[in-house]
Amino acid sequence: MKESARLVGGLWGAIVGDALGVPVEFTSREQRLLDPVIGMRGNGTHQQPPGTWSDDSSLLLITVETLCDGYAPERLAGRFIAWQEHGYWTPHGSVFDIGIATSLAIARMRRGILPEEAGGIDEHDNGNGSLMRILPVALHYRDAPLQVMCSMAHRMSALTHRHPRSRMACGLYCCMAKALLEELTPEHAYLYMITQAALQYTAAPYLAEYPCFTRLLSGKLADIPKDDIASSGYAVHTLEAAIWCLLTSDSFAEAVLKAVNLGDDTDTTGCVTGGLAGITFGINAIPRQWINTLATKEDIEVLFARFAGLESRREDLV
Question: SS3 of 161, please?
């Protein structure tokens, strides 16, 4: 499979996973067992039409666009503000969902706080609001030394989530994504991430966060029963759930539907899982009907073509 098929597969996979989860966000696992998501649906939690994606994809798309232009913290911050205030990169022209930590961080940026110092630093600021948008960093810096890629993930997380735990979660996710781009199997990519964690996160401030990732880094995540996999908005839960879904699935559709049907923070779990599954199985493994249903699909196509054209040495997209 061409590298570009994995690259754009990851991007489309994240948005598809998000859109699958939007209508059932905050519903329980029991509700999903009774009425499982099997494809794109509308209405539900946010009363949006089928194919509507959330703040997860908005901020991911803004990150893609900013990396196309060359990363500058002020440029990324300005686009975050434009998203919240003017509906920039939203599916229907307005913001219908935003995390508390992200909202507070954008308010700080608006007041003139330096972007990479705007994110919350307290322990309760470890939601998944930076993890959901960090995939483009792994794609953009995949050929850079791993330390550089992780450093950029930490910096870009800090705009909204500056606590070391959130930044470490973003770095670990990027390690996993990088390994999948290099065509490692999910199982070997998982082991690669564990190995790199021991190399990248052995000093302050990350060493103190290691206990929070003990289960993830045990090498035995796939053996954990589904009932013990949490799907809340906590960054560590989301990272565990996404990797667990990938490790226990044999296709893109199985992975993202499994993620969404865990319930609770369905859009973000779907988005983070979809990014990894899209890289693993490639763009052609994503059901075409799901992509075609997405809001502003044509605009997204233009952006992804630009990103892939810059990043994959003008290879064909598929």
Answer: strand
Query: How far is residue 128 from each of residues 175, 199, 268, 272, measured CA to CA in Å?
Result: 17, 24, 8, 9
Alpha-carbon distance 95 to 81, whole Å? 11
pTM > 0.85: yes or no? yes
Model pLDDT for residues 269-296, shown as the tens digit of each residue: 999 999 999 999 999 999 999 999 999 9
CATH class of 3-311: mainly alpha
DSSP tag of 120: B
Cα end-to-end distance, the chain, whole Å: 9
Gyration radius of the chain over CA positions: 17
Longest dimension (CA), the chain: 48
C-alpha–C-alpha distance, residues 96 and 15, integer Å = 16
CA distance 133 to 293: 21
Cβ-contact 89, 65 below 8 angstroms: yes
Instruction: Please choose, from the candidates 306, 310, 300, 305, the residue with its C-alpha nearest in 3D space to the C-alpha of residue 51.
Output: 300
Give one word for 184, left, alpha or beta, with left for phi > 0 and alpha for psi -120 to 50.
beta
> What's the pLDDT tens digit per position in 87-104?
999 999 999 999 999 999
Alpha-carbon gap, residue 30 to 32, rounded angstroms: 5
Query: Nearest Cα to 239, choosing from 192, 190, 203?
Result: 190
